[in-house]
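Final report, closing paragraph on structural work. Over the funding period we assembled a curated collection of sequence-structure pairs, and we close with a single example.
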Amino acid sequence: MPSMSRKLNYKLILRFLGNVVFIVGLFMLLPLLFSWYYGSGDLRGILLSAVVTIVSGGVIWLLGWSPRKRQAGKRDAYVIVTFTWVAIAFFGALPFVFTGAIPSYGDAFFEAMSGFTTTGASILDDIESLPQGVLFWRSLTHWLGGMGIIVLSLAILPLLGIGGMQLFTAEASASASDKLHPRVAVTAKRLYGVYLLLTLVLSLLLLLGGMTVFDALCHAFATVSTGGFSPNNDSIAGYSAYIQYVITVFMILGGINFALHYMTLTGKFQKALKNEELRYFLKLLIISATAISLLLIIRTGMNGEEAFRHALFQTVSIATTTGFVTTDYLAWPSYIWIILFFLMFTGGATGSTSGGLKAARQLMVFKISAAEFRKQLHPRAVVPVRLNGKGVPGDIVHNIMAFLLIYVLIFATGTLVMVLMGLDLETAMGSSIGTLGNIGPGIGAVGPVDNYALIPAPGKWFLSFLMLLGRLELFTVLILFSSRFWKE
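Its predicted structure, as stored:
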């Protein structure tokens, strides 16, 4: 494995960045179909955005061209992953600006970063007033960012002569603990095969529920990626119970490790079902949804089916960091939405498209705590921490505890920063966890029926940074702020 101390390969970094920007530019051409079909007036702006992005990607790639082909080292991987997400948000904002849908570049960057990181936080007051091409691009950013634009590029890395294992491990959202194939490009293709299959199946089910092709695709992109952007002002609230249940099921699927989906599709269902993280995640959803639905029935008089549907939908939406809404959960009694606030710190499974802490880390914290209690009772006992029947190495235990501590500190810091910018404490907490956890809606003035338009301009840039931190799981970004990282 290449050493962390090896000199950064700037040519390789530029070549990779150019390749990804070029791919994003090609995807920008897809919304043109809806711009032309609906005659929504945004065709020229989107086409210009695509041309600028494609040409820029080509130029960046040429700047990084080199006859020498080298593997990406660890330091290269950290730089590539972080700057790739910044670059795609930078260019992904162009369709919003060039069409006039979001005139302010700062707001457009916030919307694009929210899309690619599958956060789903928006600054738009009237989503339905936007042209269809722009709305389709907005949802497409979710789909591209969901499994990770990095993994999409890994599938073609062999053509560029760039080794991909370091990048695969750095892009936390796409790294499954159980590798499906020793070659990372093959793994990437299999994961994307599952991702594409779920998207197609959900699109068909939504069409059967009465959605148009446009709405079905937009909501399928946002659901499977656990992103939460909807082309409707009221999100999912205006749709039938059938559609709400279907989306609930696929939000859960999006929050499950995609390696387990692949196991299931290849006949290893029993092995997938034994996964401890999966069992913990599903139990958490069932217990939370049941408790909330009972409280709604008892305290609000809501009928049983409606209470269960809203409770299940909002529990799943927040726990998987999707951010869709069917009702204003802040209108429920405070002790109910406080449960949902705590679920904002959950996140889906590792290897899923969800953000947040991840269920495996939470489960490990409980196991580590239980082990410490046993040591207090039996000081000389050796109490191993196990996950899925395997002992967890000490360095991973330390990594998990450090991650949890830093995550909470960043949430607290984010809350303080937003308070200093003039937000009330409730809104500051909601915006901090809503972006760091890649959830979207939070509490306070950034709740389920509101948006982030009220945040001051500097606050939007800061929250965009929190989205990036949450999406790349902290360390990948924070390590770049270390002076030792840049010393050759």
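The chain is about 65% helix and 0% strand. The chain has a mean pLDDT of 86. We thank the funder for supporting this effort.
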